[in-house]
Specification:
With about 170 residues, the chain is an alpha+beta fold. It has one domain: START domain (Alpha-D-Glucose-1,6-Bisphosphate, Chain A, domain 4, 2-Layer Sandwich). The protein is about 25% helix and about 40% strand. It is built from 4 helices and 8 strands, in the order ββααββββββαα. An 8-stranded antiparallel β-sheet has the order 1-2-8-7-6-5-4-3. It is globular.
């Protein structure tokens, strides 16, 4: 287990809390979540790319993106597209981003059959390193279980591993 392993826990049956320390300054880690050219490099699990990534980084602004599986070894997932849409509620640079995360389609219409999430990301300055704390609140314990059963925790673990790799390439 690496010393930068992600720690996860569930609070109140419907809040997923994820924490990880990144070996990079807070301003840089924050920037990775703000700019589409950075997000395209690391967002999503291994074997997935982000061919579409539109970011309007302001309260009320929308982040609309597509993840596409490009890894033939992922079997039925190969070629699959997964669209997502975030609507920013609050941004405090470089400390905090709060947004609502939805499953969506290519036009940005939200998919109401899958649970949306209230996400709060905190970027804590550890003097040259950054502790990232993500709190994802679901409407119910069942909604959280739905996304966990879809493999979300493994997907986020791989995504944050890719973030760490991108950070090490930049600095």
């Amino acid at each position: 287990m690496s010393r930068n392993a992600m720690v996860s826990r569930v609070e109140n049956e419907r809040v997923l809390v994820l924490e990880r320390v990144f070996e990079a300054p807070r301003d840089l880690v924050f920037k990775m979540f703000k700019e589409p050219e950075h997000l395209k490099r690391w967002w999503g699990p291994r074997g997935w790319e982000v061919p579409v990534c539109h970011v309007d980084f302001r309260p009320g602004g929308v982040w609309h993106y597509c993840m596409k599986c490009v890894d033939k070894n992922q079997g039925d997932f190969y070629g699959m597209e997964s669209w997502g849409k975030g609507v920013y509620k609050e941004i405090v640079e470089p400390e905090k981003i709060i947004y609502t995360d939805y499953f969506s389609d290519a036009e940005g219409n939200t998919n109401d059959t899958l649970p949306s999430t209230e996400v709060m990301m905190e970027f804590i300055d550890l003097g040259g390193k950054t502790k990232l704390v993500s709190r994802s609140e679901y409407v119910s314990a069942e909604a959280l279980k739905t996304v966990m059963d879809m493999g979300m925790l493994e997907g986020i673990t791989q995504t944050w591993d890719r973030l760490e790799e991108s950070l090490s390439e930049i600095k």
